[in-house]
Amino acid sequence: MIGDKDLALAGKMLDILSTQHKLSAHNLANADVQGFRPLKADFRKELARAIESGDTKALKEISVEVERARQPGVDSEREVARMAKNEVMFNTFAEIAAFRLRMLRSAVTSK
After folding, report:
1. N or C, which end of the chain has less CB nearby within 10 Å?
2. Which of 15, 9, 22 is nearest to 83 (CA)?
3. Dist. CA 95–CA 93, nearest whole Å
4. Each residue of 49-92: pLDDT tens digit?
């Protein structure tokens, strides 16, 4: 499909950012629980390798590893900042995907 790599990257980033948002919300919801160790997502190395390879299949197969922090305690300000950054990135990739789909639709329906 034309633009499949662009859409695959945008789609995968939306999945990753959605997971990160859920983890931050979970961490904030449990911030007052004594001994709670926050969750974090690790995907950057695998994402970088997939992008460098240029392989659409590799992009689609990126997995997000969820890990618990070694030490208990949630930094609420950090989690809120992470959520704000995540929201901006999510909106950006949603716009990229929407733009790419509009381009494809235009190419298919043009005479």
Report:
1. C
2. 22
3. 5
4. 888 887 878 887 888 889 999 999 999 999 999 999 999 999 99
Q: Report pLDDT digits (tens) over 16-42.
A: 999 999 999 999 999 999 999 999 998
**Which residue is associated with the tokens 């970088």?**
48
Structure tokens at 44: 């950057």
What's the angle, vertex CA 8, arms to CA 62 and CA 48, rounded to 5? 45
Per-residue tokens: 11:
């789609």
d(CA 66, CA 98): 28
Question: Which residue, chain included where needed, has tokens 């460098």?
Answer: 52
> Are the C-beta atoms of residues 97 and 14 closer than 8 Å to each other?
yes
Nearest alpha-carbon partner for 12 in 109, 89, 66, 108: 89
